[in-house]
Amino acid sequence: MSETLLQTLLNTPYVSKFGVSFDYRGDELTGLLPYKENLVGNPLIPALHGGAVGAFLEITASASLIVSQPLDRLPKVIDVAIDYLRPARAVDVYARAQVARSGRRVANVRVEAWQGRRGAPVATLHGHFMITPASKGTR
User: Fold this and answer.
1) Using CB atoms within 10 A of its CB, is residue 129 exposed (0-12), middle (13-18) or buried (19+)?
2) Domains, the chain, ordered by start
3) Cα dihedral angle (68, 84, 21, 60), rounded to 10 degrees?
4) What is the overall mean pLDDT for the chain?
């Protein structure tokens, strides 16, 4: 795992604005999007904005690629498909990613986000990312 690359991701203005953090235990990385008032998209329900949830899923996918293999650079999004399964209430959101396949240039990642109960996801992401594996001298 490249701790420096993960810190670079977390320190980017886009990611730091959300306040995303990660808990890495064993071989599992769990992301946390803490509830903030400015993330609410529908104050009538209240529910988090879909863009905030989607961004969190994308950030979690990138972080999982960084911790699962040595990379020279941050992963770049090729494409993502997000399924919004239910409204994300105005509470913390958690997510876990699974790297389905990782080649020399492209990685395929799936992410699930939930609140309260992992068996009832609020959204899922399936994405392809361009990666630059670390050269043998930088591992």
Assistant:
1) buried
2) 3-138 (3.10.129.10)
3) 20
4) 92
